[in-house]
Design the sequence.
């Protein structure tokens, strides 16, 4: 019996988990009985995001408001809850029993329908209970729109999305807060700072409206096919005139909280053409110029020169590799230092990136830095283009003579030529004279030197003990190394303390550079969900991961809100602790 009971409990738990995973799509009405002079609100709610929503015909009713879409998401105890709602406001045309037919929506290729709703419409009532239409007024006069510059781009081609909140002159907005922000999955994204929110005059569906630009983002698609731009959801405090009047006959305004969301946008990303793709293509999309230069072309052996490979232009500057410098083996080349000097605006990234090499000459001779090739895809002409630099001649004036093969990139051994005067600088005949120096024996210096080891031995023992204790302190050494590394990455941010925008840009860049160095990931993978997943794979504890993600979110949010000096110092200290803790665990 006990085994049977356990099986029944397991089946009940399994059934409940399956029920939780099912799609719920239902219709909810504000009332199922109303007067012919009242209004009805109906909400179509779903617990998973769906497409191709089709409302019923609302036969027997007049549509006076809607559809209004809202989206809300929450995470409680690690579980995600989602709700998407389409709201309509209806007025009955006559009395009697009426039925609101089924609505339809498609979720993951399956069509779901609501159950029909029966409504009883009675004769007119003395005091309608439809909240004097303020909800309808707020819903009909407030709209959040996502404007996309290009819905059919190529892979890695920049597009922009601008979120605008349109407000009718009939209402006013006193406050708003962001409820759900798009994550831009499958895109590399960069938010553009909006320093000041300004209301501008415009039109919405042919009617005069005011609008405010709330968010601007530049996106580079990282996958091909149909991609979704998640909606932005806001909770807005709206002041709506009611039917009540004050002593002077002016309408009394009522403040209500209205949830508004932008529609989900579809982006159809095209694959880059495979025909004609050059071997030197590394993913650059846009329009660029290539420049290879050196600070000098003549030098002596053991001297150094600086060589630079620079790409200028407009495109995905942060998402491709530069061509590597090709020099003869007689010239010693050090690893390059990358330099970035570009800005991001509504046209995408524009500026330059470069890699600077230090080259040391070891032998006399003339050497050539080979020409470089760089290819990119131009979306305007829809074709690949290849740029080729000119070769650079390097003339090393003095030093050991290089063989011909050395100048072409192969190391060879050379015979050493000896001359009869190669040791001419060694003096074989000397003229030394004795010095009248004081006797050292029994002097103060003699006894001091004799007693010095006796004094130094205890000091060496104490120093060795301290050194062993420090070497055995594994946790302390990890902490010291982690603190040193954290300060190294955050040094630029510390210099920017006091400058709000530059500080948070430097702080975010430092955290991204740390992840690049430790996790070997690219800039295109710098999504918060991707970062959290990689850190979990490295067995980083949940609190440290959450602290790191919250700090990244603070950097993004701080661009739109002013921050005091003390707040910046607190965020700097938080970053120092988080990176230090993360490095110890890694």
Sequence:
């Amino acid at each position: 019996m006990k085994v049977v009971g356990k099986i029944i409990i397991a089946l009940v738990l399994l059934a409940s988990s399956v029920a939780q995973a099912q799609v719920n799509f239902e219709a909810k009405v504000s009332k199922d009985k109303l007067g012919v002079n009242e209004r009805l609100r109906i909400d179509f709610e779903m617990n998973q995001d769906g497409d191709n929503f089709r409302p019923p015909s609302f036969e027997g009713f007049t549509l006076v408001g809607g559809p209004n879409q809202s989206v809300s998401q929450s995470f409680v105890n690690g579980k995600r809850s989602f709700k998407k709602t389409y709201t309509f406001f209806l007025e009955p045309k006559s009395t009697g029993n009426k039925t609101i037919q089924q609505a339809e929506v498609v979720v993951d290729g399956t069509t779901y329908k609501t159950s029909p709703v029966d409504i009883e419409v009675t004769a007119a009532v003395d005091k309608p209970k439809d909240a004097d239409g303020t909800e309808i007024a707020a819903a009909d006069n407030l709209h959040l729109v996502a404007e996309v510059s290009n819905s059919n781009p190529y892979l890695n081609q920049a597009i922009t999305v601008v979120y605008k909140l349109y407000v009718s002159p009939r209402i006013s907005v006193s406050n708003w807060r962001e409820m759900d922000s798009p994550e831009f999955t499958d895109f590399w994204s960069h938010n553009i700072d909006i320093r000041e929110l300004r209301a501008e005059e415009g039109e919405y569906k042919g009617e005069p409206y005011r609008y405010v630009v709330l968010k601007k983002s530049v996106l580079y698609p990282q996958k091909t096919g149909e991609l979704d731009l998640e909606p932005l959801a806001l909770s807005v405090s709206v002041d709506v005139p009611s039917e009540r009047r004050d002593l002077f006959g002016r309408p009394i305004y009522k403040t209500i909280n209205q949830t508004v969301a932008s529609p989900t946008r579809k982006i159809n990303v095209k694959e880059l053409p495979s025909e004609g793709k050059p071997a030197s293509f590394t993913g650059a999309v846009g329009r660029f110029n290539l420049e290879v230069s050196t600070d000098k072309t003549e030098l002596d052996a053991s001297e150094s020169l600086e060589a630079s490979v620079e790409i200028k232009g407009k495109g995905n500057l942060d998402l491709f590799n530069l061509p590597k410098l090709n020099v003869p083996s007689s010239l010693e080349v050090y690893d390059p230092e990358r330099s970035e000097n570009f800005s991001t605006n509504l046209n995408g990234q524009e500026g330059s990136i470069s890699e600077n090499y230090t080259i040391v000459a070891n032998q006399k001779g003339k050497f050539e830095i080979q020409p470089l090739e760089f290819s990119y895809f131009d979306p305007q002409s829809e074709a690949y283009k290849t740029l080729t630099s000119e070769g650079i001649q390097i003339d090393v004036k003095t030093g050991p003579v290089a063989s011909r093969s050395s100048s072409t990139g192969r190391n060879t051994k050379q015979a050493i030529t000896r001359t009869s005067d190669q040791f001419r600088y060694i003096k074989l005949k000397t003229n030394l004279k004795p010095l009248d120096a004081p006797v050292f024996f029994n002097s103060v210096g003699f006894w001091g030197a004799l007693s010095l080891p006796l004094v130094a031995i205890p000091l060496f023992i104490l120093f060795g003990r301290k050194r062993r204790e420090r070497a055995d302190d594994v946790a302390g050494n990890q902490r010291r190394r982690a603190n040193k590394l954290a300060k190294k990455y955050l040094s630029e941010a510390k210099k920017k303390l006091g400058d709000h925008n530059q500080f948070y840009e430097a702080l975010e860049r430092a955290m991204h550079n740390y992840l690049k160095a430790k996790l070997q990931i690219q800039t295109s993978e710098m999504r918060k969900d991707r970062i959290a997943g990689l850190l979990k794979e490295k067995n980083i504890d949940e609190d440290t991961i959450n602290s790191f993600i919250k700090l990244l979110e603070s950097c993004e949010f701080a661009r739109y809100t002013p921050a005091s000096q003390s707040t910046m110092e607190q965020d700097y200290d938080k970053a120092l602790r988080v990176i230090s803790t993360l490095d110890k665990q890694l």
In short: The CA atoms of residues 176 and 236 lie 4 Å apart. Residues 474-585 form a domain with the Four Helix Bundle (Hemerythrin (Met), subunit A) fold (CATH 1.20.120). Residues 12-20, 405-419 have pLDDT under 50 and may be disordered.
